[in-house]
Write a structure and sequence with these properties.
The protein has 261 residues and is an alpha+beta fold. The protein has 5 helices and 15 strands. The chain has a single domain, classed as Creatine Amidinohydrolase (Alpha-Beta Complex). Helices cover 30% and strands 24% of the residues. It has a 5-stranded antiparallel sheet. Strands 1, 2, 4 and 5 form a 4-stranded antiparallel sheet that branches. The chain has a 3-stranded antiparallel sheet with strand order 3-12-11, with no helix packed on it. The model has no long low-confidence stretch (mean pLDDT 97). The site of one magnesium ion has 5 residues, from loops. One magnesium ion binds next to loops.
Length: 261
């Protein structure tokens, strides 16, 4: 990742918003179809078609050779899962991560879904992971430092007895999918880059039910927990704000679908 920081104009931020909102709409299309028996590959096909129908490109397809539109990570898989003929079953959770490129700007967001009846301890992991994202977003304001964002995720997750994946981080986003700075989900309050208006970052807590250690599967992509316990992942693309962060992606359409299921 280049070290240079790219501060965006208001016009550029609107373009990133457009891409990020399309990601949310895509994930909502996926949400409509999630049920026991459906393959993760069929979810991927629907997402790709929807993105292309909206005159955008799937950002992950071909990225460093990644074969698909979505990263779909099941249960103990943390991130970068490759869609496959695996059929979802009652009790599973899946992190669905999606990126699009439209008008030369990227958007990136992820949501962890439940399939059927999921164990209470796993439901609580999802709840806490999503909370940690929003608590961190409160720190994505001028006057805070990057370490405040990172520490907020870590503190909330660890307070609840969970562990934070260290090797994978959030990132700046704009004309590249992954720009500087790296946005770790652990850190020290008051440390790191001073946050300024114009900076746009993807904040993406990856939180494990058990221990923090991860391993990579033999496919060269999929990351899963070493102890094989569940992991959750939520992500928003966010512009640093003066008093309040501007969340450019949205879970609204996704949660509307989920609430009406
Ligand atoms: Mg993502
Ligand atoms: Mg990301």
């Amino acid at each position: 990742m280049a070290k240079e920081l790219f501060y965006k104009t208001k016009e550029e931020i609107e373009l990133i918003r457009e891409s990020s909102l399309l990601v949310g709409k895509t994930l909502a299309e996926v949400a409509k179809l999630i049920k026991p028996g459906i393959t993760t590959l069929s979810l991927d096909k629907v997402a790709e078609e929807f993105i292309r129908d909206n005159k955008a490109l799937p950002a992950f397809k071909g990225y460093s050779g990644f074969p698909n539109t979505l990263c779909i990570s099941v249960n103990s898989q943390v991130v970068h899962g490759i869609p496959s003929l695996y059929e979802l079953k009652d009790g599973d959770i899946i992190s669905v991560d999606c990126g699009v490129l439209k008008n030369k700007y990227f958007g990136d967001s992820a949501y962890t879904f439940t399939i059927g009846e999921v164990k209470l301890e796993v439901l609580n992991l999802l709840k806490v992971t999503k909370e940690s994202l929003y608590i961190a977003i409160e720190k994505a304001v001028v006057g805070c430092r990057l370490g405040d964002v990172s520490e907020a995720v870590q503190a909330h997750a660890e307070k609840n007895g969970y562990s934070i994946v260290r090797e994978l981080v959030g990132h700046g986003i704009g004309q590249a999918l992954h720009e500087s700075p790296e946005v770790p989900n652990y850190g020290k309050k008051g440390s790191g880059l001073k946050l300024q208006e114009g900076l746009v970052i993807a904040i993406e807590p990856m939180v494990n039910l058990g221990k923090k250690a991860i391993i990579q599967e033999n496919d060269g992509w999929t990351i899963r927990t070493a102890d094989n316990l569940a992991s959750a992942h939520f992500e928003h693309t966010v512009a640093i704000g003066k008093e309040k962060a501007d969340i450019l992606s949205s879970f609204e359409e996704i949660e509307e679908v989920l609430n009406n299921k």
